[in-house]
Amino acid sequence: MFELTNIEFANPIFTILLxxxxxxGMYYFYQGKKRHASYKLSSLKAFEGxxxxxxxxxxxxxxxxxxxxxxxxxxxxxxxxxxxEEEVKAEAVDIILVTxxxxxxxxxxxxxxxxxxxxxxAIDFIEKRExxxxxxxxxxxxxxxxxxxxxxxDVVKEFVSSLKCGLLEDGTAIGLGLAxxxxxxxxxxxxxKVVILLTDGENNAxxxxxxxxxxxxxxxxxxxxxxIGIGTIGQAYAPIGRRNDGQYVFGYTRVNIDEDLLKxxxxxxxxxxxxxxxxxxxxxxxxxxxRLEKTKIEVTTIKRYTEMFxxxxxxxxILLGIEVLLRYTILRTIP
Length: 335
What we know:
335 residues, alpha/beta, Rossmann fold, 2 domains, six-stranded mixed β-sheet, four-stranded antiparallel β-sheet, 10 helices, elongated
């Protein structure tokens, strides 16, 4: 069907006839010249200024006929306004992003650093999950839920973009971070519940909640955990201390990620472990998770039409009527 924004033609084949109008225009022009007799005169001086208004108005008769034909052709094509209504039934996924805010996330092996890169990639991921509920949990030496599960993705993105290191006691409490997210998911009625846990270190805080204990709870709750280890292999330029004014002191330090632990957490819950050593890899990881956790969507499209050919039909008939009326009354020619 031929569509123009929200206007479409039910019988678009008739629009081809519009291409004949310029040909008809040329035909009327040349035929008009042939219909008038010609006279040879030695001079036209006697006729100067003798052209009448009636003679000039006769020139609009072919134009009126062409416009009338154009309007009638459009009416035949049946233009109509289309109103589309979509009824969406989505089996959404509940997803909580669990993000490490320990000082090592300021390491500059990613540009500008690990935290900023992970925030930008996470926001891109959020924008793709149109129908899901998302939430945000952060952890360092302690953990808390920054944003509970919500369908308001603008709020989640705002919380993600505002994340900073130094807001929590330093450290890496992976077990606490995961447990805090599970506390939000335990009441979820979604068929699919997911945690994406991103960290760049080893569990060294929050000893009263062991990471594998939290993983066992996740398994019981039916929560799938995808773990991401972020950081280059070897050394990275990262915070190695802090001045009295709160500014971080940077230097080269070894990157230590407990990959075995992250693999165990993911494997125990039916998820997967990923390692990102640059931005491209991190983007690919989120794309892979997006593919693995597809939301089931059923869309029913209902179309309603408002017929718009009546004005064109009326316009065409009016123009044709005016043309006939003028041709055989005021602008009538005498043979």
